[in-house]
Task: structure prediction
Amino acid sequence: MNKSQIRSQFLALLNRNDCSNELADTFLEQSLARIQRTLRVPPMEKMETYTVNDVTPDTLVLPEDFLNMKHLYSGQTVLEYVDLGKLLSQFPQVDTPRMYTRIQGSLKLYPTPIEDTEILMVYYGEIPDLVEDTDENFVTVVAPDLLTYGALTYAADYFIDERKPLFEETYNRVYSELVEQATLTDMSQSSMAIGTPF
Result:
């Protein structure tokens, strides 16, 4: 479904004659922001590849749409997140990085990587906004009801509508289904790994 179709569905469920398209869009935007604050599912995963340079070899700038880290690795080494104090207490060294910490919009690595080392980041990125009526994103395609019922909860606050608990219940049910599906996807992938015989 695209933005226009979801708006139409939202207005039909709200069933009021005093909600303009502009106000409906505001509720949809609030719903999308709410979803983005907490939902972390595979369609939100993105990958960034860094090649270490000699200017800032121990620092990676986070992507503009970064929400949360999933994996950070170099070669066969998965980097461990540590607090800044632990990272700064390490003796200076140039080698394959093993740990990192976040400082504002960047990551500081330890040990300092060798120049041209490749570091890969799998992260959760922002959900694209719905600007035009024809716009879609993974929420509108996979779970349009999540966006719709989230918007209905905001509309219920605005219009002091007593149906809010029903809207919230549906939102939470669809949200839980998405999270459960993401968990099952990760579990099924881990079961595909080939183990070492004993």
Observations:
- The first helix runs from residue 3 to 14.
